[in-house]
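Sequence, C-alpha cells reproduced for reference:
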Amino acid sequence: MPKKRSGGGLSPMQQAAKFLGVSVLAGAVMAGIALPAAGALGLAAKGSVKGFDEIPANLKSPQLSQRTTILDDRGDPIATVYSRDRTVVDLKDISPYMQKAIVAIEDSRFYKHGAVDLKGVLRALNKNAQEGGVAQGASTLTQQLVKNYFIEEAGDDPTKVAEATQQTLGRKIRELKYAIQIEDKLGKKKILENYLNITFFGQQAYGVEAASQRYFSKHAKDLNLQEAALLAGIVQSPSRYDPVNDEAEATKRRNIVLQRMAELGDISQKEADQAKEKPLGLHTSRPKNGCITAVKGAGFFCDYVRQVVLTDPVFGETKEERAKLWNRGGLTIRTTLDPQAQKSVQASIKDHVYKSDPVATAATIVEPGTGKILAMGQSRPYGVNVKNDETTINLSVNGNMGGGAGYQPGSTFKPIVAAAAIEGGKPPTQEYSSPYEMAYPSPVAACDGKVWRNDPYRPAKLKNENESERGPYGMSEATAKSVNTYYVQLISDIGICPVIDMAKKMGVARADGRKIDQAPSIALGTQEMSPLTMANAYATFASRGMYCTPVAIESVTKKVGSEQKSLEVPKSTCSRAMSENTADTVSTLLKGVVEDGTGQEAGLGSRPSAGKTGTTDERFAAWFVGYTPNMAGAVWVGDPQHKRKMTSITIGGVPHDKVYGGEVPGPIWRDMMSGALEDKPVEDFHLIDIPDDSHEDDDRGKGDRGRNDDSNGDTTGRLIGGLIGGPTDGGATGGATTGDTTGGTTGGTFPTPTFSIPENFIQGQGNGGNNGNGNGGRG
C-alpha cells in the first residue's frame, strides 16, 4: 500500500512519479500525433512575415497570417490591419539581454534539459506541495511554445482559447508530445526565436519586436538590460505587470528578473543592482493594430469594410469561414473611397462641429448609378478612449454593420412619399387644403388589405411650423416650404403601402432592422434611418430612378505563397425603382428646395443641386440630404444617445437658439460637396416643367422659411397607433382593421410595446414620449 503523508494523499515524490509515469505512457501511446497543419494555427504577423520553417516535415510549417492592406480607389493605403500586432524577427535581431532574460525567468535550465525538465517538475511539485497551491509551474519554453500554437489556433474564439489554456491532464499530454517532437527537430536557438516571436507581451503586442516598439519605440535588437528584464517579466502576467497601468508592480517584477539573471551568472550582481535603480524608461508608441491606424479620418469606413468581409456570404458561407479569412489576412482590399471626397468631408465636419460638442455629426457621400461609397466621416473620432470623445460606433451606418439604431430623418423622407404619389399617377400640381393644423385623415389604406384609423375620441393631430402656412398648396410649394399637413394629406390619399413599397425599392429601411411602421406619420420621417441609407436613397433620384445597392469594395486579392489570388467581391445590384419621369420630377421639386425653399444655405452656387432639409420634433436630430447628378450625400446632426435637444446650444463655436436642418447640416453638406466635386464635370438635371402652383395674391406661407425651415411643432406626428399601435404616452389610440370594417380597435393589430430608452443607449430610437417612434417629421 502506498505510503501517505500525515495529512493524507501522496508525498511530493510519489506525485511526481505518478505524473511522470502518466506522461511517459501517454507519450508512447500518442507517438503518431502531429501538430496541426499550417493553416490551422492562424499565427499572425506584421512586418516581415514568415512561417516557422524548421518545424518537422510531418508537422508541416505553419504559415503565419499576414497583414491586410486596405486601399482607397486610387490604390493608396488607408490602413493596415491584422489579427495580431506582431513582427517576426530572426534571433540575431533580438538583443542578447532579451534572450538571457526570458530564459532566466521562464526556464533557467532551458539549455540543459530536453522537451520535459524532469528536475523542474520535481522542484515544482515539491514547492506546490509545501505551499498548498500552484506556486510554481514546470512548463519548459518548448511546452509554452506549443501552448501558444494552440492559443493562436483558437484565434478570437473565447471558447477555443479556454480549451487551449485549460489546466487538464489531456492538454498537458498533448503539449508534451508536441514539445518532444519540436525539441528533437528544431534545436534550442530556433525554439527560443519562435517563442520570442509568438508570445504575448500585453498592450496588443505579440512577439518581442512589437513589444519593444510598443513600450520603448525601438527595435528588439536595441533593448538594453533593464528594458529586456522588464519585457521578460511581463510574459507571466501581461495584465498584472503592465508597466503602462501599474509602474510599481512592473518595476518589482523587472527587478526579480534582474536578480535571477545575476544568480545564474548572466550578469554580475553589480550590473543587476545598478539596473534596479534605473527608472522603467518607457517611451510608448500607440498600438498599430486595426482601423485605428486609418488615415484621412477613414477609421469608420475601414471598420465598415471589415464588417462587409465578416458579414457578406461572398466571403464565406458561414460566420466562422469569413472570420477565418479576415484573421488570416494576407488580403489587399481596394475600396471605393475617394480621397478627395473623404478629405472634403472631414474638413467640413471639423469646421462646423467640434468633437467635444454635446452633439455629433455624421456624413456620407455615394455615387449615383454605381452605389459606390465615396466618403464616410463623423465628428467623434474612431477609437476607444471615451475621455478623448472617441467611439467605435459608426454613426453613418445601420446597426448590423457597426452602427446604432439610427435617427428619425424628419422631412427628408417626404420626397419618397412624393415619388410614390407621382409614380402612382398623381400630378406634381396636385393640391390639398393643407391647413395650419389638422387631425390625421382617417381611414387610410395600409398593406395587405388593412386600414389605419385614427382614434375618434383622442385623434392624433399635427400642424405646420408657422401659422401663416395655410393652404391650399400644390406639390412644388409644399415641398419647398416643407408643409407637413400637405404631405400627410398626400399619403392619406394614395395609401401607406405605395410609400412603403417605394421606400423598399430605394433601399430605405430602418437602421435597427425592424419593418417600417404602417401609419401615415411615416410621411414625416418618424422611422429611424442611417445617413448611408438616406444618401443612397437620394442617389436614386440623381440616377433618374435607378437604385444601386451600396458597395465599399472594388477588389480583393489574397497572398498565396508568392502569388496573388483574386477573390470574388460583393457587386452593386441596380434595379429601376421608379420611372425616369418620376425621378426627374422629384429632382425638379428638390431643386426648388435649394433655390427658393428651406435648403438655400446648402446651395452650391452655379452647380445645380437638389435636396431636402429635415428636423425632428424637439430637435433631437437635424438633416440635410441632397445630390447633384454625379454625387449624393447625407448629413445628420444630433445626440447619438438621443438625450440632448438642440435648443440653446453651441455647435462648432456657434450659438443656436434652435437648430434647423437648413441651418447646421445644410452648410456642412454644402462645404463637403463643394470640395468633393471640385474639378468634376458640372452636370445638370433633366428638369420637368411644373406649372407654378404658388398663390401670389395672398399672404399665406410667407414665414421666414429660410430659418424656421422644417419644423412641425410639438404635436406633429403624435401617433404610433392606427395600424401599429395602441394607447401610448402622447400617441393615438387608433386601430387597424381589414376590409370595410368600421371603427378603430384600440391597440391595433400590431400593438407597440411600451419601453423607456436606457441611459447607455447608443443611438436615438425616437422621442421617448412616443414609445420610440417619436414625433419626427419636422420638415
Summary: The first strand starts at residue 68 and ends at 71. Residues 1-62, 133-137, 699-708, 712-778 have pLDDT under 50 and may be disordered. DSSP finds 22 helices and 19 strands in the chain. Residues 103 and 110 are 7 Å apart (CA to CA).
